[in-house]
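G.,

No rush on this.
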Amino acid sequence: MDIIMVPGFWLDASSWSEVTPPLVAAGHRVHPLTMPGLEAIDAPKSGIGLRDHIEAVVEAVDAVGRPVVLVGHSGGGAIIHGAVDARPERVVRAVYVDSGPLGEGGVINDELPVQGDAVPLPPWELFENEDLVDLNEDLRAAFRSRAIPEPKDVTSDKQHLHDVRRYDVPATIIACEFPSSLLAEWIESGHPFVAELARINDVEFVDLPTGHWPQFTKPLELGEAILAAVDRTV
């Protein structure tokens, strides 16, 4: 299976490097992506928005030329959902890593502090305690040293979706910060945060208790969780 992997904010393709070995060892073909504007710290950010990131994933799907699994971490979840909407016939599963599908008109996070055309990685004090579980001082230093400012329009552009066939693409939610039982409660109560997720016809939940960046705090476990989701698909 071809697995296209989209990182969250401030990260490039290399952020998946400790996650992919179990997938490769199992014979799958991995395609970690670097999104437009994140090629380097000083890469131009102006004019790059959410739709540009979605289109980059769609281009990768088309380039593979076979059915694919999409994996998206954090803000990458919104991006892969846009690609599912664009190519529902080509995506056999969407895996959301501590993230979920973003519905029509939603934004990923328009409250992050902006500097010029970009959103740099904020100080740790601006994150919730749940975000930072298992992210020790060494991991925080390594993350900050590799962090690339995110194009600001990606964080605040509205999601636009067009094809209801996206709801027929199976989804896996790898729940890290909050247990899947809480997500199930939100769905049951009609919480708007999970409104789009609630419309997907086939959703499985996998718990991987840690903070918001399991690719750093529990990379092997994350790789194995993604592998299990892929194996249930093929």
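When you get to it, here's the other one too:
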Amino acid sequence: MLRNTLTLMPEGVQIHLPQGSPLTDIEYETSEPVIPFGCRSGACGACVVEVLDGADALGEADPEETDFLEDLGRADGAFRLACQCRLMASATVRVVEA
């Protein structure tokens, strides 16, 4: 099974997930809480990440996610809700402090 790497900055933690896995699956790959997840449905904003590399690897944001990120003041396209992403190739993200 093809596995892709999600790198979390600034720590440089690398997590390997099967291709197409939702980013919420990282909790099964590490005992450390590396991305805070709240509602897991794209409604709370706890899991906002800044995509540093590999934006295409996370799939395209749907209009609801884009609208919510805009409401959070994160509308420049570099931000995603980790709970709404699927890892299709390797990517690097930074967890945004709330």
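The helical segments are 63-71. The beta strands are 3-9, 13-18, 21-22, 48-53, 79-81, 86-87, 91-95.

Enjoy the weekend,
O.
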